[in-house]
Amino acid sequence: MFFLVACTESLSPVAEALASEPMLEVELDPAPPPERAGLTYEIYVRSFYDSDGDGTGDLDGVRLKLDYLESIGVQTLWLMPVFPAFGPAGYDVQDFGSLTPEYGDEAALRALVDEAHARGMRVLLDFPLNHVHREHPWFLAAAEGDSIYRDYFVYGGEGECWWPDAQGGNYYAYFGPDMPDLDWTDDRLAFLMGLLLSQWLEVVDGYRLDAVLMLVEEDGVTEGSTASHALVAGVAQRFPGKFFLAEASEWEVERSTSWLEEAQAVTDFPRREALLLAAAEGDAAHVAEVIAEQGTRAEGMASFLGSHDVDRLASLVADPGQRRALMVANMLLPGNPVIYYGEELDLPNAQTASGQDHAWRAPMPWDGSSQAGFTTGTPWFTPDPSYQRGVNVEAEDQDPGSMLNLVRALACVRAETEGAAASTPVASGSVLRWTRGEVSVEVDFAGSYRVEGSGCSI
């Protein structure tokens, strides 16, 4: 069970602030954003690299591969949830206050962060603010009728997203009955969550804030409420100097960029949709229109092609040339590009088996040896056989024409043009043209690209 500390004299300064001023009451007056995230790399720790041969990736495995990540220009590491959870991906958290034992302990996390900092990288943890698993101790107590813990959740409605519990009431769970939503309007819940946020910010540089769109239901508004914006602002302002990447699944540009009032970077769903449409329809105007509408805010958007939630690009777009053109666009257009682990290898979905996680969350292929060099044991998830056909780090490292070496070259261009303004792109049919400083970029979404004026080998 959890409890509240009643005597504020025993609280830390952060806890005293949380107790005196709930995060939902912070005024929307954010400071100017700090430096951008730069090239961000999303890692599913379970599937990245196994350092101890138990078949499961771990924090030490990530640390051992930092030289590789540095070689492709990574500036920010985003670790998918590392807290104990009931599902493999970690978004249905059981305990925010500890780490998944298979991944390692706090010492392992600190060692990873220290070595990342030595290479100039920041580290973000993924923090699911919206919900917990229904087997979480708080919800178990609520389901048994404990009035305090019932206040931690949203009860009393009916209709879509409302689910019955053992007490004859209905609880709200946007993502399905296994993930009941937390009630951030309850001061005790907000206080406890604030302390948990504070705990890990003593170690890491910030958070990727999951599902911010659904945080607070307000006056019948379940997505993008004013209170949800206020909560993200409260988190960011409570922890100055930390970096927050907000996952706002908004499909309209204006609504998407509005989250930059609260967070330093925001996932760019409109741009991803535009990029895929440009490739599918041969019309670069989709992308040009989104970037033009974003204006100067385009620099704060976290643009992505793949993620833990969607099929890998190599399984979505059949033509290899188009995939390379999309990679160039995502890396060199204004903003903070995000690479989902393995995307730099042109890795496809795995040939998944029953009982395993999604096909796009299979182990990272490091070489052509047994189990793709991911583990010396039995992998928790069978690697995709493409590693035997050269889709692995070792083979692509030696191939000048590989996707991996294209990504390295694009990272070189980004470093070369660091601080230079990117122009608003101009579309002509399937072709998109723009500049980054003195570098001219042309992408034909039919399957080709050209980068001129750069000293990088591309």
Q: How many whole angstroms does the radius of gyration measure?
A: 22 Å
Do you know the CATH topology of the largest domain?
TIM Barrel
CATH class of the largest domain: Alpha Beta
Mean pLDDT: 92
CATH homologous superfamily heading of the largest domain: Glycosidases
Give the tally of β-strands. 14
Describe the 3D structure.
The protein has about 450 residues and is of the alpha/beta class. The chain folds into 2 domains: about 10-130 and about 185-420, Glycosidases (TIM Barrel, Alpha-Beta Barrel); about 135-180, Oligo-1,6-glucosidase, domain 2 (Alpha-Beta Complex), CATH 3.90.400. Helices cover about 30% and strands about 15% of the residues. The chain is built from 16 helices and 14 strands. The strands form 3 sheets. An 8-stranded parallel β-sheet has the order 9-8-7-6-3-2-1-10. Strands 11-12-13-14 form a 4-stranded antiparallel β-sheet, covered by helices on one side. A hairpin with a 5-residue loop joins strand 4 and strand 5. The radius of gyration is 22 Å and the shape is globular.
